[in-house]
Known about the structure:
Blueprint: E1 2-7, H1 11-21, E2 27-31, E3 43-44, E4 53-54, H2 55-67, E5 71-75, E6 79-85, E7 88-93, E8 98-106, E9 110-112, E10 128-129, H3 132-135, E11 143-147, H4 151-161, E12 166-170, H5 180-187, E13 192-195, E14 198-205, E15 209-216, E16 221-226, E17 229-232, E18 236-238, E19 268-270, H6 282-302
Parallel strand pairs: 1-2, 1-8, 2-5, 8-19, 10-17, 11-12, 11-17, 12-13
Antiparallel strand pairs: 3-4, 6-7, 7-8, 9-18, 14-15, 15-16
Cofactor: FAD
Enzyme class: translocase
EC number: 7.1.1.2
Amino acid sequence: PYDILVVGGGPAGASAAIYAARKGIRTGIVAERFGGQVLDTMTIENFISVKNTEGPKFATSLEEHVKDYEIDIMNLQRVKGLEKNDGMFEVELDNGGVLKSKSAIISTGARWRQIGVPGEEEFKNKGVAYCPHCDGPLFEGKDVAVIGGGNSGVEAAIDLAGIVQNVTVLEFADTLKADDVLQERLNSLPNVTVKTNAQTTEITGEDNVNGITYIDRASGQEQHIGLEGVFVQIGLVPNTEWLDEDVETNKIGEIITDKKGSTNVPGLFAAGDVTDSPHNQIIISMGDGANASLGAFDYLIRN
Ligand code: FAD
C-alpha cells in the first residue's frame, strides 16, 4: 500500500505528491487528466516569480517536477469511489482497479459552471472568460459583460470595473442575488450597468467575441450589446460527485477542511479548488497541497 495517495493531478495534487515524496514515503498520484484546469488556461501572469507563461507549458513543468521524484503516476485514470476499511483507504478506479493507502489527499479540483449558449465554447479564451483575477487585465479599457448576479458575479463586476471601460451585469432573475453590501458598492460605480430579467441566449463574434444577445424577460424582446469580453460567473462546481456522504462537504459540495487540510475522516485530507477555501488560484492550490501533505505526514507518524 501507499503511505500517501493523492487523488487529482492539478497544481494542488502535484504539490502534495512532491511534499510527500520528499519525506521518503511511498507516494502515488492518480489523475484523470494530469495538469488539471491549467491545461485549459492560456496565459498565466500571477504565479509569483514566473512573470508570464502558458497553461500547457506550466502543466508540463508540473509533471516534470513530479517525475523527478519516486512517485507512482497513474494518469488518465478516473476515480469513482473511496472507502476506509480497517484503517486503510481503498480508492476505486473506473477500470475496476483498487489502490490502497494509509492516508489520502483529495485534490480533484473544480470546474466553472457553463451557461451553455451558442458561442460559449467557440469563443473560450477568445473573449469568453471565467476568472476575473486571471483574465481581467486582458480586457483593460474594453467593454465586458458579466453573466450572473450572485456574489461571484457582482464581485467580478466590481473587480472588473476598475480595469475595463464598461461592465454590464446580466442576471436572469428579477433581482440580483448578491449580498446587500456588494450590491451597494456595485451601484456606486459609474461604469457598471445592471440588467435584470436578462436571459442570455448567445455570445456572438467572428474571430473573437463581439457581443452578447439576451432576451429581456419582462418585455420578451431580444437585445444585443456590442462588447469584447464575457465573464461567466454562475458558480463553480467542485469535482466531488464521486465521493460518498461520509466526507463532510458544504452545501455546494466543497470538502470542508481544517487548517491542516484534514477532513472529518481521520487520515483523509483535501487541498485546492475541491475544498471550501474561499479563493481558487494556482498559487493557493499549491500552498494548500503542501499543507495537506505535511498534515498527512503528521498523521502517519502518529498512527
Ligand atoms: P484542478 O486544476 O482542477 O485539478 C484537478 C485534478 O483532479 C485534475 O488532474 C483532474 O483530472 C483530476 N480529477 C478530477 N476528478 C477526478 C476523478 N474523479 N478521478 C481522478 N482524477 C480526477 N489560476 C491562477 O492562479 N492564474 C490563472 O491565470 C488562472 N487562469 C485560469 C484560467 C482558466 C480557463 C481556468 C479554468 C482556471 C484558471 N485558474 C487560474 C484557476 C486554477 O487553474 C485553479 O485554481 C487550479 O488549477 C486549481 O488546482 P487544483 O489542483 O485544486 O485543481
